[in-house]
Amino acid sequence: MFNSHRRLFLGASFSGLASYPLFGQEPSPKERNKEEEDEKKDPLPAKAVKEDAGFQPATLFLTWHKDPTTTMDVQWVGTQGETADIKVYYTSDPIPVPVKGAPKNPNEKKVNWVVCNTIIKPYPMSDFKVFRAEIAGLTPNTDYSFRIGKASPIYKFRTMPAKANDSIHFIEGGDCGINSAAIANNIMAAKQDPMFAIIGGDLGYDNGKSVDVSLSFLRNYSKHMVTKDGRMIPMITCIGNHEVLGSYEQKREKGTFFYPLFDGLYPETGYATLEFGDYLSLVLLDTGHTTPIAGEQTKWLEETLKARIDHPNTLVINHVPCYPSYRNPIGVPAKDGKSGKLGTGEGQRIHWVPLFEKYRVPLVLEHHDHTFKRTKPLLNGMPDSNGVLYLGDGSWGRIRNPRTPDCRALTAFVCDFNPQKSL
Ligand SMILES: [Fe+2]
Ligand SMILES: [Fe+2]
């Protein structure tokens, strides 16, 4: 049986996600057409640059490749020479707000800015570059201000707590796209005031070939994934088929924009772990897009889960679901000399599910099928109260009608997920 504190943790963690409106409706054909038109256009122009605000990269976002209790990666995509000073300056000191006409307070404490160098890497198929400042040595559970150079606006982030003494609340989803539903979901997600967001693949649907789509996704995220008090919400990702030119069984370089953006966390492989102090371990997998499911990745997964068997909270995130809520899980057997085809998630069910069960993973977060799903706890493909829970299935912006209940015996709950209906 799973430790009770694992369950308590999850109960607290998913309160934000569960508070989403669950019973949206499928968009009408007219609405669908509008969404498709929206996707062809760049839905959000770059942020309007205020005359006095200096450098404001519209793609600015936060992510992590090391412990989120003491680090933060500040990233943006832009061109070299846009601004003279690309170093990131950060501080935990309060920033005094100037009052127009008020005399300067001579006793006001000077803000102590710390400087972090920014690395520059190519952004493929364009003249753009990825700019990344890897800030380390931060104090846990602390609000920081930062700026790029001396003239950018001042942005805010918060480090994760050192210990999980209170609830850890975050948003999880996938299959976003750049349409109006994705933007609506960004807005709803930010309203939950999450500590961070996990996007489990199929981010913008750039398909490894559209610079414009990849940048539109970042611009949308940058603009809307900000809390009411102005704190930027860090993004953690894993790879999906729509990050990759060719979708499956491709070489790493076909994840054209994904790896240049996220190779801090994925420097060599398509899978990784992210450790939050001693209380949360995220295991992020590649469901066959640039790394085979079987072989090295499965061997690494077993070692990783085995090493964490006593860890209080080890969660797995993958893209293609082990237990799909929409696509067909049943494959086509080889026949008459023709090769067969695995059903959706069949490779994961063969190679990974036994490990999730053996090492008592409490929760697997799944995506790709574009519905909102909760399975029954499952052991060996059968409902069992001591089993593994699978939540999904990726409808941050992509939405479809789920299958009828008789087609999904293993799911406790499935619906579509359309935030536009409530906005
Ligand atoms: Fe998708
Ligand atoms: Fe997908």
TrEMBL record:
Keyword check for Signal: yes
Where does the record place the Purple acid phosphatase N-terminal domain?
A: 58-159
Q: Where is the sequence biased in composition, kind Basic and acidic residues?
A: 28-49
Q: Gene3D superfamilies annotated for this entry?
A: 3.60.21.10, Purple acid phosphatase-like, N-terminal (2.60.40.380)
Q: Identify the residues that the record assigns to the Calcineurin-like phosphoesterase domain, covering every copy.
A: 188-370
> What are the start and end residues of every segment in region (Disordered)?
22-49
Name the keywords, alphabetized. Signal
Q: Which SUPFAM superfamilies match?
A: Metallo-dependent phosphatases, Purple acid phosphatase, N-terminal domain
| GO terms assigned for molecular function | acid phosphatase activity; metal ion binding
Q: Which domain of life is it from?
A: Bacteria
Q: Name one Pfam family in it.
A: Pur_ac_phosph_N
Q: What is this protein called?
A: Metallophosphoesterase family protein
Q: Native species of this protein?
A: Telmatocola sphagniphila
The lineage, from the top, is: Bacteria, Pseudomonadati, Planctomycetota, Planctomycetia, Gemmatales
